[in-house]
Design brief:
The chain has 147 residues and is mainly alpha-helical. Helices cover 50% and strands 12% of the residues. The strands form 2 sheets. A 3-stranded antiparallel beta sheet has the order 1-4-5. A two-stranded antiparallel ribbon has the order 2-3. Helix 3 packs antiparallel against helix 4, helix 4 crosses helix 6 and helix 6 packs across helix 7.
Amino acid sequence: MDISAIEQTGTLDTLSAAERGAPCHLVHPSTDTPLTDNGVDLTITVKGSDAQVFEAQRDAASNKFLRNVGRRGGVDQAEVRAQQIATLAAATVGWTLTEKFMQLVGLPPETAAFNKANAIKLYSKVPWVREQVDQFAGQRANFLSPT
């Protein structure tokens, strides 16, 4: 691809794009059908994996691993998962989720209000949502304008 086309239509600045975030449209875990509630797309807006929050998590995880190399017990997988959930919650900048959706995934309706604590609850309780959002955040194309 000739970079002149990119210059006219977009950018390759993945850092800025990742920090802005983009909406991840949730899909049904078995049918891949986009989820809506009365015509409203169910989305979670998340920063991309090039964002500082992800870089800091990768650094912290690496440092912890290196400190624990050779020590008894090593790194606990449950602790790693908890850190991943906390990082994803910190990288989540908003959502359009409804009380009905929250009830369908087994959470109280009041968790539909976006905040970090509710993001942690959602990502802890609903692995398929966590996986969709995490995979979306890891794909740079989701944060750049197509050329």
